[in-house]
Amino acid sequence: MPDEPELQRHFGQPGNQKKGCGFPVAKWLAMFDPTTGMLLRSIPAPLRSHEMSQVAGDLAGVGTRRPRARGSWVLLLRP
């Protein structure tokens, strides 16, 4: 990714880089169909953003569940 001011503002850079001495870094988010494995959507996201804020509008028909044995949330597709 080129080191452009607009990209720096939008994507940011890792905290261990000095201001003006690094390149913008994006994370890539992908949503796959669990049955076919087909890629449904992919988007670049800012380095310091939560994935749910990026895909909130795409989650119609998706529910969440927290398994008892684990400390994380799981997204489940509703039939």
Question: How would you characterize the overall build of this protein?
Answer:
The model has no long low-confidence stretch (mean pLDDT 72). It is elongated and about 45 Å long. The longest helix is centred in the first third of the chain and has 7 residues, at 5-11. Helix content is 15%, strand content 29%. 1% of the residues are buried. A two-stranded antiparallel ribbon has the order 1-2. It has a two-stranded antiparallel sheet with strand order 3-4. The protein has 79 residues and is an alpha+beta fold. This is Transposase.
Please specify the SSE layout and strand pairing.
Layout: H1 5-11, E1 26-32, E2 39-46, H2 51-55, E3 62-65, E4 74-77
Protein name: Transposase
User: In order across it, which strands form the biggest sheet?
Assistant: 1-2
Largest sheet: 2 strands, antiparallel
Rg computed from alpha carbons, rounded to a whole number of angstroms: 16 Å
The helix fraction, in percent, is 10-25%
| General form | elongated
**Rounded mean pLDDT score:** 72
Q: In angstroms, what separates the terminal alpha carbons?
A: 39 Å
* Order of secondary-structure elements: HEEHEE
**Strand tally:** 4
- The helix count comes to 2
Amount of beta strand? 25-35%
| Poorly predicted ranges | none
What is the total number of structural domains?
Answer: 1
What structural class do you assign from the helix and strand content? alpha+beta
